[in-house]
């Protein structure tokens, strides 16, 4: 398999965690978002959205959208599972993941950030308000969801699908100045995940295209 992605992309980060939890080897090709490589003709042929990640399977199929890629990995490489046992718990895990993927992460996408700054004239204060209202509000909802689902991790005591989405969103929250100080359960799970070898391997700072300041 080959993963096309960017070190700081939340969506790519999710897939890296899933691959690491399943201990699946893959090749990696960086797509530098700040240089616009995602808009090249060659990359758009792989991913018409011009987004990362893209996963190329061993038989040459090209898969896009992190949620779909992770579901493919779960269906194709069943052990260890990313979804818990029981229909209710699986639905809860998917709900946490979907809330973070749909209601929190998109507002921090580089194209949205550029639009707000360059075309709408948002200053630093307006950007901070935006990020805390929308991603921050979605994360507050997830904190309440975790009160009913969490053990050591988001759903139960084994890291899985929901944690693949939580950890990158926490990384983004710290990057964009979203106030997560009141999210006790979320912070507890995040700290536990960061000590897990799979999450450590997937961390943006440990990627070959990482930029350190």
Automatic annotation (TrEMBL):
Residues 86-212 form the GST C-terminal domain. PROSITE patterns: GST_CTER, GST_NTER. CDD domains: GST_C_Zeta (cd03191), GST_N_Zeta (cd03042). One of its GO terms (cellular component) is cytoplasm. GO terms for biological process: glutathione metabolic process; L-phenylalanine catabolic process. GO terms for molecular function: glutathione transferase activity; maleylacetoacetate isomerase activity. It comes from the Bacteria. Residues 1-81 form the GST N-terminal domain. PANTHER family: GLUTATHIONE S-TRANSFERASE YFCF (PTHR42673:SF21), MALEYLACETOACETATE ISOMERASE (PTHR42673). Belongs to the GST superfamily. Zeta family. This is Maleylacetoacetate isomerase. It comes from Hyphococcus luteus.
């Amino acid at each position: 398999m080959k993963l096309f992605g960017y070190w700081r992309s939340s969506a790519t980060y999710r897939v890296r965690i899933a691959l690491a939890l399943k201990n699946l080897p893959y090749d990696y090709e960086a797509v530098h978002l700040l240089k616009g490589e995602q808009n090249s003709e060659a990359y758009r042929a792989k991913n018409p959205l011009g987004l990362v990640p893209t996963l190329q399977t061993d038989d040459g199929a090209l898969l896009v959208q992190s949620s779909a890629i992770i579901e493919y990995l779960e269906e194709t490489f069943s052990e260890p599972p990313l979804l818990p046992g029981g229909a209710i718990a699986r639905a809860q895990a998917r709900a946490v993941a979907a809330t973070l993927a749909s209601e929190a992460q998109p507002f921090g996408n580089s194209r949205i950030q550029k639009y707000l700054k360059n075309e709408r004239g948002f200053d630093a204060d307006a950007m901070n308000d935006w990020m805390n209202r929308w991603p921050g509000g979605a994360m507050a909802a997830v904190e309440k969801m975790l009160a009913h689902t969490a053990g050591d991790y988001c759903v139960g005591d084994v890291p899985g699908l929901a944690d693949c989405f939580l950890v990158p969103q926490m990384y983004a929250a710290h990057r964009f100045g979203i106030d997560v100080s009141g999210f006790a359960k979320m912070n507890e799970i995040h700290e536990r995940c960061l000590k897990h070898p799979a999450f450590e391997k997937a961390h943006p700072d440990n990627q070959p295209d990482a930029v350190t300041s």
